[in-house]
Amino acid sequence: MQIRSGPAELDLGGRQQRLVLALLLARAGSTVSLSELVDTIWEDDPPASAVNIVHRSIGALRRLVEPDLPVRATGRYLTRQAAGYQLRVGADRLDLLRFRSLVTRARRTGDPVRAVRLFTDALALWQGRCATGLEPVAGSQPAFVALESERSHAARDAADQALRAGLARAVIPALRHAAGLDPLDEALQARLLLALAADGRQAEAFDLFRALRRRLDDELGIGPGPELQAAYDRLLHPDGPAATLLPAPAVARRRRRVSSRPRNRVH
């Protein structure tokens, strides 16, 4: 997470203040309640001064983004609402909103070449996982988890469009980066396998599948799911019927079932 003013990167302060800013950015345009801000920072054990600390963090952030704002004046960007706070920022200033705009345009255009270019431009805005450096909250806060899901779905759509249009090579760097951020997303990994194979990199695709199979076994104690297996079968039989990729909800259900299983392995 970064804020830039011209070429300069601004100092975002300590972890609590960065969490407040991260949640406001993730919910850009929507009001974030004071209780959600408190819960995000302290989870189940907020101090008696939690509300005052959040207010001070908001004040510091307001001065950061509008350094010339008079004391107690209402800012343009960070405003108080009845239920909490809202960050007002447009797509020209926030990468998340620009990402969403590019993805929407990619999904609406009828030109596959343009769609692939828009998708890759959108995915290039991701430099890492959402709220990196704010773990463990980054991996559990619903707003941050939802943004990770947006990225993953955009990467899958980019792959599907590129594979249909014969443009696999154009999306492989973005797919590889997205798959690296979410190595257990089998739907995404399956599409990376197919893209590599479509670009003539069968050996690399086989190596990737073997690595994924080992990781699924080591970390989750399971084998490849139907979608990943279908992509592997396509590698083995490139002239056979096209691999069938599961819709995202089916993949999500499989991952929820896996996450609910007790893990018997000791590491």
Measured as a percent range, the helix fraction is 55-70%
What structural class should be given to the helix and strand makeup?
mainly alpha
Beta percentage is 5-15%
Unreliable segments (pLDDT under 50, ≥5 consecutive)? Answer: 246-267
Which keywords apply here?
AfsR-DnrI-RedD_regulator; mainly alpha; 3 domains; two-stranded antiparallel ribbon; elongated; 11 helices; Arc Repressor Mutant, subunit A; 267 residues; DNA-binding; transcription; 59% helix; Winged helix-turn-helix domain-containing protein; disordered C terminus
TL;DR?
The chain has helices at residues 15-26, 34-42, 50-65, 95-108, 112-123, 142-165, 168-181, 186-198, 202-220, 226-236, 248-260; strands at 4-5, 8-9, 31-33, 78-80, 84-87. With 267 residues, it is mostly helical. The protein folds into 3 domains: 4-87, Winged helix-like DNA-binding domain superfamily/Winged helix DNA-binding domain (Arc Repressor Mutant, subunit A, Orthogonal Bundle), CATH 1.10.10; 91-182; 200-267, no CATH class.
Describe the overall structure.
By secondary structure, this protein is mostly helical. It folds into 3 domains: 84 residues, Winged helix-like DNA-binding domain superfamily/Winged helix DNA-binding domain (Arc Repressor Mutant, subunit A), CATH 1.10.10; 92 residues; 68 residues, no CATH class. It is 59% helix and 5% strand. The protein is built from 11 helices and 5 strands. The strands form 2 sheets. The chain has a 3-stranded antiparallel beta sheet. A two-stranded antiparallel sheet has the order 1-2. Strand 4 and strand 5 form a beta hairpin. Helix 1 crosses helix 3, helix 4 runs antiparallel to helix 5 and helix 8 runs antiparallel to helix 9. It is elongated.
